[in-house]
Amino acid sequence: MDKYAAIQYLLDKCIIAVVRADSGGDDLVKVVEAVAAGGVHCIELTMTTPGALQCLEVASKKLAGTDSLLGVGTVLDAETCRMAILAGAEFVVTPTLSVPVIQMARRYGKPVAAGAYTPTEILAAWDNGSDFVKVFPASVGGPEYIKAIKGPLPQIPLIPTGGVEVENVGDFLKAGAAALGVGGNLVSKKLVAARDFDGIAKNARAFANAVAAARKA
What is the pTM assigned to this prediction? Predict the structure, then answer.
């Protein structure tokens, strides 16, 4: 998928599942598959997960030809960004504003969502070439903060992450969010530890349904 098709896909699907686990291996690949089976097709594997690059490589091959778009998150430096892209990442997410990471993702033609919070940081991320801006932690301020930011900066597509729940998906979208990053409320460490892949798929389905309902409202 080329960059602009990937950007549109992220916007269309809206939910980005953030997979963060204490261990990697086959179970992590099964988590990714469970999320996709539940109807959430944009999946971010965080670099804080042990063996994240290996899992990314295995999962990207397993999901090749499916509707899933696999990316990498918690990217702190340009070299990690490059290795993740070579391992199969189709989009890149950072927790903070890193211009070198933005530049590396753009060099490889991959969408990038740089992390920021204040209006100054958000505009700086956009001005430096970030395709989206990840507003983190969105639990601080909630939908009202997104609405406030969209007032003076309507041109910047924002992805609130942190504090997004099934119950407030509609509120965030109404406030102007372009997409939503969802971590523990979708892929909880408890479900991962219990190898409850059906439970993870059920959570994913609930978020996908919440987006569909919000768009019809």
Answer: 0.96
pLDDT band for position 24 (cuts 50, 70, 90) = low
Q: Mean pLDDT over residues 109-115, rounded?
A: 98
CATH number at 90 reads 3.20.20.70
DSSP the chain: --HHHHHHHHHHH-EEEEE--S--SHHHHHHHHHHHHTT--EEEEETTSTTHHHHHHHHHHHTTTSS-EEEEE---SHHHHHHHHHHT-SSEE-SS--HHHHHHHHHTT--EEEEE-SHHHHHHHHHTT-SEEEES-TTTTHHHHHHHHHTT-TTS-EEEBSS--GGGHHHHHHHT-S-EEE-TTTS-HHHHHTT-HHHHHHHHHHHHHHHHHHHH-
Range of the domain at 143: 3-216
Domain total in the chain: 1
Catalytic residues: 44, 134
Compute CA distances 35 → 179, 196, 199, whole Å. 17, 11, 10
Within 13 Å, how many C-alpha atoms sit on residue 149's CB side? Answer: 30
